[in-house]
């Protein structure tokens, strides 16, 4: 099938590439010419494990192409996936300007039946707005070409995106048009072979399903983070508690890791967007409001522990920070806890030496030549002359450092671990002060 994907970000590029991988002909459109140039030069603009190889393989096979031409992209696919950003507006609601612009471009240029598929995370009711945008553009041209709108939210995780896309738990299709549903079943047939994972529902329910999934996962994390803070006071160990409750299949072990707050482009934004949608409908989502507040607070937990240890005035001190990305295996720093920590340290007069295996280029883009931030070539280099170490992201390479070298390099042998990487008991044996999240 010929498929167009609009937007070559984390979702669009993965979607387009995976759809090509199973044999479709895919054209990806982005209006950011620099991204298309990178892609046309055989590289990719983001860090996602395995993606570069898959892109190259499918480009070489002639199944995957990239363009900045709206006309070309609209003409190409019978199915048009919209996978553009829906960043938060000033009030926290989702900004739909990119989604509606993409829809208008389709309406402006289409000459035959199209299925317009919204893959971006959008508030309930957006499918109607997408339909309206296409209709308005058709009317301007005095055309009445048939088309369908489908809501097909994406559930992939950055860092594991190819696996999530190729082996989905479920494929949610919100649609009311029989021909569109049939086409969508065909699009996903190759990802649906072992057992039927396709859940067809109405569009509003599909849109809400996406927010419900992210909100539930965020709730689990904030719940555990609050319990971890309590465990700190009570002398209990949150990791033992996780094992104790996760063994109940109604709870499960996943997404129960306490830490220094959830970040990324989605949980914080989607929780707030859902709160906003509810507010517009005169519903006060008390649980989710608390989830968000608890997370904002949790992003300060490392700084609070540093201040409790070294005092409020950190002037002249230097902290090594391991991990800048909001999670491992990505270069994404959107809403990353590292930013809250570093900015908090700077505000108290300290400087930072940071190391991240892939996100340092992104950090340089965000912070430019910030004088209070320097970068190290390796995790161990970051420790040289630092007062103490803070760990924000659980990259694999941080799991078994040389603790003797670490102790020798730090002025105070203290680790503030936002991801609970080490055993507190082992740290005590090593003579390292260890401040983790809810561990004993
Ligand atoms: N990042 C993630 O892990 C996930 C994101 N989502 C959702 O998917 C959507 C996209 O997210 P990301 O891929 O992270 O965004 P992104 O910001 O990485 O990429 C969006 C891309 O769309 C392009 N774009 C904007 N307007 C355009 C237009 N009219 N025509 C063509 N290209 C256009 C931008 O230049 C950019 O390259 C969001 O709604 C997000 O909430 C859903 C699941 C996972
Ligand atoms: O809508 C989205 O964009 C995506 O959002 C999340 O994916 P992602 O943000 O890429 O990454 P996660 O692995 O979910 O991690 C999010 C944040 O939660 C934190 N986290 C995760 C799990 C956990 O147990 N504890 C915890 O603090 C991570 O450190 C990270 O900062 C969801 O997991 C995806 O299903 C969804 O498609």
From TrEMBL:
Pathway terms, separated by semicolons: Nucleotide-sugar biosynthesis; UDP-alpha-D-glucuronate biosynthesis; UDP-alpha-D-glucuronate from UDP-alpha-D-glucose: step 1/1
Active site: 266
GO MF annotation list: NAD binding; UDP-glucose 6-dehydrogenase activity
Keywords recorded for this protein, A-Z: NAD, Oxidoreductase
Binding site for substrate: 155-158, 210, 255-259, 263, 327
Highest taxon listed in the record's lineage: Bacteria
Pfam families given in the database record: UDPG_MGDP_dh, UDPG_MGDP_dh_C, UDPG_MGDP_dh_N
Catalytic activity: UDP-alpha-D-glucose + 2 NAD(+) + H2O = UDP-alpha-D-glucuronate + 2 NADH + 3 H(+)
Binding site for NAD(+): 30, 35, 86, 121, 158, 269, 334
Keyword Ubl conjugation: no
Oxidoreductase is among the record's keywords: yes
Domain UDP-glucose/GDP-mannose dehydrogenase C-terminal: 320-424
Catalytic EC class: oxidoreductase
Family: Belongs to the UDP-glucose/GDP-mannose dehydrogenase family.
Protein name: UDP-glucose 6-dehydrogenase
């Amino acid at each position: 099938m010929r498929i167009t994907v609009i937007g070559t970000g984390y979702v669009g590029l993965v979607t387009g590439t995976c759809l090509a991988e199973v044999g479709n002909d895919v054209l990806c459109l982005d209006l950011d010419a620099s991204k298309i140039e990178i892609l046309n030069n055989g590289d990719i603009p983001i860090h996602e494990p395995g993606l570069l190889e898959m892109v190259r393989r499918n480009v070489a096979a002639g199944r995957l192409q990239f363009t900045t031409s709206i006309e070309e992209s609209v003409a190409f696919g019978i199915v048009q996936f919209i996978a553009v950003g829906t960043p938060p507006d000033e009030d926290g609601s989702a900004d739909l300007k990119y989604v509606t612009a993409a829809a208008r471009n389709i309406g402006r240029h289409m000459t035959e039946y199209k299925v317009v598929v919204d893959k971006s995370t959008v508030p309930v009711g957006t499918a109607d707005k997408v339909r309206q945008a296409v209709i308005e553009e058709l009317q301007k041209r005095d055309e009445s070409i048939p088309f369908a709108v489908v809501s097909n939210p994406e559930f992939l995780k950055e860092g594991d995106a190819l696996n999530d896309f190729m082996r989905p738990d479920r494929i949610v299709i919100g649609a009311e048009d029989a021909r569109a549903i049939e086409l969508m079943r065909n699009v996903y047939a190759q990802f649906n072979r072992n057992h039927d994972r396709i859940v067809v529902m109405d569009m509003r329910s599909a849109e809400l399903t996406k927010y419900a999934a992210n909100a539930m996962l965020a709730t689990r994390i904030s719940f555990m983070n609050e319990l971890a803070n309590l465990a700190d006071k009570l002398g209990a160990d949150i990791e033992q508690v996780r094992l104790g409750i996760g063994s109940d299949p109604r709870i499960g072990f996943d997404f129960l890791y306490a830490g220094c707050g959830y970040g990324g482009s989605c949980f914080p934004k989607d929780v707030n967007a859902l709160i906003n949608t509810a507010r517009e409908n005169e519903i006060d989502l008390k649980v989710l409001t608390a989830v968000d507040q608890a997370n904002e607070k949790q992003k300060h937990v490392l700084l609070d522990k540093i201040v409790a240890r070294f005092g409020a005035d950190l002037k002249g001190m230097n902290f090594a920070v391991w991990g800048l990305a909001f999670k491992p295996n990505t270069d994404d720093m959107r809403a990353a806890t590292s930013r809250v920590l570093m900015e908090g340290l700077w505000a108290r007069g300290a400087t930072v030496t940071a190391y991240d295996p892939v996100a340092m280029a992104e950090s340089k883009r965000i912070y430019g030549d910030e004088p209070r931030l320097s970068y190290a070539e390796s995790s161990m280099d970051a420790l040289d002359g630092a007062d103490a170490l803070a760990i924000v992201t659980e990259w694999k390479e941080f799991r078994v450092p040389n603790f003797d070298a670490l102790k020798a390099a730090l002025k105070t042998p203290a680790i503030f671990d936002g991801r609970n990487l080490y055993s507190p008991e082992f740290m005590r044996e090593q003579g390292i002060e260890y401040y983790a999240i809810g561990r004993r």
